[in-house]
């Protein structure tokens, strides 16, 4: 059992710079809850391991997770980030600019995720990060499996959902959806899945290669 001190140490293992700190301040002002520093570092790590050139993010917020992802992607990589709140995306663009990200590397698309995602190209993306409406998580998985190339990775934030997922007595729609999503991904023949206890939980899976 990991202690609270060790968990805190792991969360702060990769320190955030002034750009990310400012992005978090913007998030607090507009009522957005960004990924933790540990979750952000994990996203950067995954993007780096994948040498990601094309990433989709559902839930732009003020750019905290997006900047972490961009810092792990290839120098020519493009982040496509979707959010229903155009004002949040404006703040995210400020974050990306302050972080030295060229404009062409971050494509912000305002709109509902399930209306935007079907317009994106099949099998084109290396990583899909989902941090939107929790009750839509199952639909995000369906879209992610279409969007990802073989070997690509899908990641869901809030996979522990404030300690509610592990408690069978918690049966509200959001908790039930996230719990069911975990079961679906763990049993899916085309996914290699893992649940990481960083931040509020990251549920990740690699889309396996299928023989021709």
Automatic annotation (TrEMBL):
Record's keyword annotation contains Ligase: no
Alphabetized InterPro entries for the sequence: Cation-dep_OMT, SAM-dependent_MTases_sf, SAM_O-MeTrfase
PROSITE patterns: SAM_OMT_I
Any Gene Ontology biological process: methylation
GO molecular function, a single term: O-methyltransferase activity
Keyword set includes Transferase: yes
Keywords annotated in UniProt: Methyltransferase, S-adenosyl-L-methionine, Transferase
SUPFAM superfamilies noted in UniProt: S-adenosyl-L-methionine-dependent methyltransferases
Pfam families: Methyltransf_3
Gene3D superfamilies tied to this protein: Vaccinia Virus protein VP39
Top-rank taxon: Bacteria
Listed PANTHER family: O-METHYLTRANSFERASE RV1220C-RELATED (PTHR10509:SF85), O-METHYLTRANSFERASE-RELATED (PTHR10509)
Name this polypeptide is given: O-methyltransferase
Species this protein is from: Nocardioides acrostichi
Taxonomic path: Bacteria, Bacillati, Actinomycetota, Actinomycetes, Propionibacteriales
């Amino acid at each position: 059992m990991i202690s609270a001190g060790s968990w805190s140490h792991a969360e702060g293992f990769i320190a955030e710079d002034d750009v990310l700190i400012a992005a978090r301040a913007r998030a607090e002002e507009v009522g957005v809850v960004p990924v933790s520093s540990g979750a952000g570092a994990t996203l950067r790590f995954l993007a780096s391991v994948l040498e990601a050139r094309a990433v989709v993010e559902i839930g732009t917020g003020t750019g905290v997770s997006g900047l972490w992802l961009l810092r792990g992607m290839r120098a020519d990589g493009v982040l496509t980030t979707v959010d229903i709140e155009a004002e949040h995306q404006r703040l995210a663009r400020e974050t990306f600019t302050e972080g030295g990200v060229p404009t062409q590397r971050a494509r912000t698309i305002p709109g509902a995720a399930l209306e935007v995602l079907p317009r994106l190209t099949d099998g084109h993306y290396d990583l899909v990060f989902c941090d939107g409406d929790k009750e839509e998580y199952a639909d995000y998985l369906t879209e992610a499996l279409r969007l990802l190339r073989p070997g690509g990775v899908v990641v869901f934030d809030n996979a522990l959902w404030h300690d509610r997922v592990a408690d069978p007595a918690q049966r509200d729609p959001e908790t039930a959806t996230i719990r069911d999503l975990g079961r679906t991904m763990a049993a899916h023949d085309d996914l290699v899945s893992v649940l990481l206890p960083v931040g509020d939980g990251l549920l990740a899976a690699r889309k396996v290669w299928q023989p021709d």
